[in-house]
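User: Second chain of the day. Same drill as before.
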Amino acid sequence: MQRICSSLANAGYGVLLIGRKLQRSIPLKDEIYKQKRLPCYFQKGKLMYLEYNLRLLFYLLFVSTQCYCAIDLDTILPNYFASVIRRKKRVYDAHELFTEQKEIVTRAPIYKLWMKVEQFAVPKFKNGYTVNDFIRNVLRKRYAVDYAIVRNLPRLERLQPYPSKEPFIIYQGAVNEGRSFETLIPAMKHVYAKLVICGDGNFFENTKKLIKQHAVEDKVELRGMVPPRELRTITPSAYAAVMLFEDTGLNQYQSLANRFFDYIMAGVPQVCVNYPQYAAVNEKYNIACLINNTNADTIAAALNNLLSNNVYYSNLQQNCLKAREELNWEAEEKVLIEFYQKVFER
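Assistant: Same format as last time:
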């Protein structure tokens, strides 16, 4: 969201990014766009979603704007009703296929509820964009909407040389259910390096328990939420990275996560699931070690291969450095700016 908001602000748009204030939220940094966090009493569960949606709706009704943009399905209803009441334009930014997440698709009542939200709201958002062809095609087939594709690519930044230290493996991003921590943590018992996890999420406390259960406190470091600016110095200093998803739900199987491209931008080879979207990128650029399952033994073997096979590792690393010249936000933001120009021309 920082990249999207910054690009729109630089293009001359007034931008306000609204989010939820958590007990563990880190302080906001000054940006060229406005930011607002809405405090909520409930921090998780159904009441959290209900409270946040109501607070967001009432806040949006009094915001001076020409266009509302809903980020994913869990903010689509307040943006829809605010746009109707205020008679303003609306845009849907589908970062993922929300209804096909593991924590939703595996719980029938929750899945049914979110499908009703999707069926009601998405057809009413004729303007929208998503991150890959698969999600675009699903939404087109379900609701006859034709969305643009704006991939979540990182900015092209100069890589700083880092002094040689003991190699470590990085995981960056949400520590959520469905990210294979149940097998990644025990795998670290057999990996010849330390794992640093930068992020927070709904599986964070479970991950703490797994670390203790498998007695890998000396092999796994949980850093929690890390500011993006700081993360951009940590990731390039890593030796390797992990990009794992369970294949429960189409959202995971057809995902194309930000961190996949962040690792490429940092020049860091990664162990990555061999799912269609990642395989397509890797076929062109050869920047990752793809694995066919997320079993602990498979993860450990792939990471140790990167740590011990210098020729293989060097080849992947050099390919990352080449790929980052094409897979960057400076090229992708042109699609975003063109999209919003067309929205405001209508």
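DSSP finds 15 helices and twelve strands in the chain.

User: Great, on to the next one.
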